[in-house]
């Protein structure tokens, strides 16, 4: 079937390619003519004019928006005058689910369906397919089924969950209608919150392995650190790249994120290209806020989020106050950074 | 080659089977004659007498101990008089790495090699193979290579890590000589610490999804909870079993632990067979202690550990004191449990 | 000067008494005639009719609202038709500072000033005075100065902060104009967030002291817990009531919250009147949300909040999933609750 | 009575002065002759020779050791040959309680009593007195009562705990016999653990106040941070020095640590003398380890400890791995530090 794609960044462009490979017909829009042309060269219909884009799509239209969360609102503003009843708009980016609820209400007034679709897969999705978490009207979801189905990874060779039988459900093909408006991005939000926790678990673990030699005489010791109680037990020099590799096979902690860690550590076990200032994109924050608002304890996910803040120096003033208190009650001077 | 196995519980018995399938010759010992007989029926040589066990093994012996950590010491006590120079002892259980260092020193005095081997794989290892993390003398590790190789999963069909070439290393076959005495169990300890963090990340995430309907009128509300600020945003009734399923394909959070969660949720999305009193086996504790002793921050792994303590009521007195303070300063009465 | 007080609960009634003791003239309103009468008996002018209340106040009016956060909006709705330009409304409850900003804008349209005032002091404020954190127009704050001054504790006998000289500032008398609309409740919100952290620090500490005897033979051991590594180091039977007492004098952890803990433990060192289901009132949540939104790491304050959620069973499903995963990968059965 | 003091650093020297003011007779030892002379000038008997020190003390001796934890063992080694049955040794430093148990056993073999005494008070103790937490034999504690009593703050003007009557107990005078060997340092250890939690609660809270202006146009924005959702709610410019001051009077968070924070912020609200690399002295670590070993959840205290580790860069590798994973799955480049 025909799909219009707005936003031809890494994600959007790859998704168009995956759809065309599956035989779908794509009309693409971006402000950047080069990105449009690149897909036109591969068989898409393209334009840098929003009105023209809407004209090129046959009604009822199916339009997928793949832009940064902060831009979605203005894209809808531009699209709205051109839309007609029964058109379907899908926000496939990392939007806040509360915005979806608002957008869906607004567009419903003119009979336009709005779906929210959490899309996981990153740069790997073109080949592996995208895991899709969808919210909104059942009718609209049904109409778009061929598109979702083509983007999703499919049943693949993954071992079937115990107890599941019969022809594979959509979930088993990698896409799911989660519930009404916002449900897709709600599930995607929590997905990313979990991702933060998983990533932090590996990061902390490898950091402990990295510290396994702090008792060695040749190990740079930090004058500020409390003296190590049992140096004889911290004498190891572990090869983190090999450890990541061995865990990929048969261990309980095997995962795709571990595979990626193994890639990174194989390239450089010291990770010296990275300074350790870790960004966060919004969904980790929203997950913790949802946990707080709904009263669900989430200490692990939230600690993972706060570690990212701290990595960017956002806790510095708190640390300065700790040093200042120590100076006040004990006359302790901060040791120089050397 | 020939291997002696002490301890024929779920892990030990499965490992013997996997070794015999690979053509190795196993002599087995357990205090329980039925467990010995079960393996004898499959071709093992068996005994319930420790001296006899040592006689049945040709020297230099290779003996694998697969018993609870608390029992290892007494098994070594029983074995020691029967051992000779050049024998190799492997502790394949979940022992504390600091005990390994002690055991290795003690046995070295009579020329016996002691290897520590962290073994991951659980009940699935018989078919999938065991991920092995080994510490100790290089010579002894080399001598046992056929055993480790047979127990490990092998290279398998897992996609190769970017940049790795040539014939697969041991790590790529699922076993690794991590370093000197204790290094194997140190790596396994951190592996389990990470596992606690990963498990908690999924558990907290699914719990947030479970709370996504707290704003619904039909949802049981708890009189003690602060009133929900934005009930209109917590109106979902998500199918957790389907969510777990869809994440298995193409998403960033795919992992073996997620596969297991999907199994459990497919069987019963309410998990009503489980009361939520979560045990911990020691290694999560040791990981956090290692983090503290070596000065490596591990807030996520440690929060995961403490959640398990709390799940067993170990934080009750702290909570009582909080309620008592609230009563003292604000006259707040605890609401009844109903 | 004259002040109208709406809401004669524990806080409101005590504040009226403190104001009348200082010579101020109070007009009081409550839906409950008995609570009105109790203060009329002490010299206040009273009414249960909102219109009448506004008539009894001379213009420009000064009205203090002391009601639950959830009721503030409807009180303003009732008051608004009776208000005139230059009247001042103070919300002295535990409102969300973002609501203050909204209320102030709305009332400014008819020339009414809206102040937000975080009020700390609990049931002890009548005698000790109330710590006041105020937000809003400088003019209105100045006009109400006699009221704030009378409610605040005053300079008292507290040792002066190093470096402060001259006549005591308002802050040194226990009240502070923090900034524009919402600033008072923002500071009060963070004050309560800190309070959650402080309370949790004491609660966890006393709980560790309570666990100091887990190695004793007479101590009830929990079959689910990992066996204690070093029982010989956990043989104490500490008198928590005495420990709280000794810390009150000369120690670094002395505080008012410790005084309250000492009161509670002196009454019953087992705190058996309390079940340990700890409520939270909203401000702890808002503090953590503010931390997340503004990118300030707050792992301690947020962990304290989540402990309260867990104390009410809100983490149970997460714990059930942990047990379910353990069963899946290791065949571990949850131990019975006994 | 007579007391020998070993170690004339800030703590030891002040304690000798406080004892002499109370009429006690002090014999002092230090390797540094200047520190000995300073106290001799004030009336103490002094020496830099350990044997001479023991000779100068009348038997049975009472000797207080006030040296860094790492030095205690060697001081005992030097003292031991000179000691006789019935002598009492007090370790008043910040030693690990498990070492006390060992030391007490060793010295008991020659009839020497060993007391452990946690001492809180810092540089303020000379004037305010020291809060003392004592472990060991009851007889020895009784014999030393005059010393403990003189060091402790005494009943003072602190309001009595509700329900306490009669003549003040030792705890009400600021010293407590907590239990057998190690109990004093165990209680002091947890005291310091709580202190870490309290300090972190204030530090995080003030840091949130510091972030209250992140939505202002004039506020330096960090390119790496997720865009602020609601900038209109983060427009404040709060005077942290004034906030600390106002909380000192009548608020729930009043405490000695807040007084110290007020001192520091009054001197420089930007705390620019401090870099924020926060040391830890051992007791916070031991508290968290005790929590883990005894199964008592302590997420707040442990998060506070880990924040200190992170402040010293000990989490950098973990953060680098997070950035590396983000690069792997999403092609995300770390933003430059600028």
From TrEMBL, chains A, B, C, D:
InterPro entries: 3-OH-isobutyrate_DH-rel_CS, 6-PGluconate_DH-like_C_sf, 6DGDH_YqeC, 6PGD_dom2, 6PGDH_C, 6PGDH_NADP-bd, NAD(P)-bd_dom_sf, Pgluconate_DH. Keywords: Gluconate utilization, Oxidoreductase. Gene3D superfamilies: N-(1-d-carboxylethyl)-l-norvaline Dehydrogenase, domain 2, NAD(P)-binding Rossmann-like Domain. Residues 184-337 form the 6-phosphogluconate dehydrogenase C-terminal domain. This is 6-phosphogluconate dehydrogenase, decarboxylating. Coiled coil: none annotated. The keyword Oxidoreductase applies. It holds the Pfam family NAD_binding_2. GO terms for molecular function: NADP binding; phosphogluconate dehydrogenase (decarboxylating) activity.
């Amino acid at each position: 079937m025909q799909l219009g794609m707005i936003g031809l960044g890494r994600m959007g462009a790859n998704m168009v390619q995956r759809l065309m490979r599956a035989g779908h017909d794509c009309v693409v829009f971006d402000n950047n003519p080069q990105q449009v042309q690149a897909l036109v060269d591969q068989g898409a219909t393209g334009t840098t004019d929003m009105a023209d884009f809407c004209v090129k799509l046959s009604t009822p239209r199916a339009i997928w928006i793949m832009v940064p969360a902060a831009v979605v609102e203005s894209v809808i503003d531009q699209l709205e005058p051109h839309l007609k009843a029964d058109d379907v708009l899908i926000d496939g980016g990392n939007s806040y689910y509360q915005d979806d609820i608002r957008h869906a209400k607004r567009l419903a007034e003119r009979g336009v369906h709005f779906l929210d679709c959490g899309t996981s897969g990153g740069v790997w999705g073109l080949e592996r397919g995208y895991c899709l978490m969808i919210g909104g009207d059942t009718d609209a979801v049904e109409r778009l089924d061929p598109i979702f189905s083509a983007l999703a990874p499919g049943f693949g060779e993954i071992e079937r969950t115990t107890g599941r039988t019969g022809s594979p459900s959509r979930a088993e093909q990698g896409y799911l209608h989660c519930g009404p408006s916002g449900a897709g991005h709600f599930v995607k939000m929590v997905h990313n919150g979990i991702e933060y926790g998983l990533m932090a678990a590996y990061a902390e673990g490898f950091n402990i392995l990295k510290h396994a030699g702090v008792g060695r005489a040749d190990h740079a010791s930090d004058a500020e650190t409390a003296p190590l109680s049992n140096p004889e037990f911290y004498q190891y020099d572990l090869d983190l790249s090999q450890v990541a590799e061995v865990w990929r096979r048969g261990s309980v902690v095997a995962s795709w994120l571990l595979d990626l860690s193994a890639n990174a550590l194989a390239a450089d076990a010291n990770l010296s290209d990275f300074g350790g200032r870790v960004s966060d994109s919004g969904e980790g924050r929203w997950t913790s806020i949802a946990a707080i608002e709904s009263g669900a304890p989430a200490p692990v996910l939230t600690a993972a989020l706060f570690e990212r803040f701290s990595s960017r120096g956002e806790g510095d003033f708190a640390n300065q106050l700790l040093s200042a208190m120590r100076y006040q009650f004990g006359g302790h001077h901060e040791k120089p950074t050397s």
